[in-house]
Amino acid sequence: MERATERGTRRGEERRAEIVRRALEVIAERGYRGATLGAVAERVGLTQQGLLHYFPTKDSLLIAVLEERDQWDTGSARHDGEHIWPLDLLASLVEYNAMRPGVVQTFSALLGESVTGDHPARGFFTQRYDRVRADMAAILRGEFGDRLPGGLTPEAAAPLLVAVMDGLQFQWLHDRDAVDMPALFRAFVSLLGQGDEAAGA
């Protein structure tokens, strides 16, 4: 009986994961507001009622999609005990994102939509940015100490680092030939390591 329960739980988890993947595809194609539960259910091969068994509301499915996306790339550079991601690993993450435009497009579209006060992902992104800024500050402190070569504190530079990562994604989505996202991010990281003398040269 216990094994059957375990099998059922595993099947349920696999089904939920498939629904999240398909929901990401539909959102990438139609945007959040245009992505209906019916469209996601059809993509998975379920009735809408069957889908509601796993995700009772569209908002709960959206948050699951966003959380799954964060787990895929650990874009917030989570700490592992005392270990903090180095800047080089962040640059590798940007390269990885350049290989999966669909995921980047979905995230960017939802980020843009979430600035409206009634959007269900607004709280998610607000909390995420609080966490990401703190993580980026920790990364910069691990790299440079309490002051970057240009004089900024890690806390002051962290929002700039986040802005460059997300801003490059938007530009890259509009014109991938003109915007080399990984190379430009590495160039920005190089600028962070320059002092006032190098910046003014």
From TrEMBL:
DNA-binding feature ranges: 36-55
Pfam family membership, one: TetR_N
Single GO MF annotation: transcription cis-regulatory region binding
PROSITE patterns: HTH_TETR_2
Origin: domain of life: Bacteria
Alphabetized SUPFAM superfamilies for the sequence: Homeodomain-like, Tetracyclin repressor-like, C-terminal domain
First and last residue of the signal peptide: none
Keywords for this protein: DNA-binding, Repressor, Transcription, Transcription regulation
Gene3D superfamilies: Tetracycline Repressor, domain 2
Keyword DNA-binding attached: yes
Boundaries of every HTH tetR-type domain copy: 13-73
Protein name as annotated: TetR family transcriptional regulator
Organism encoding this protein: Streptomyces antioxidans
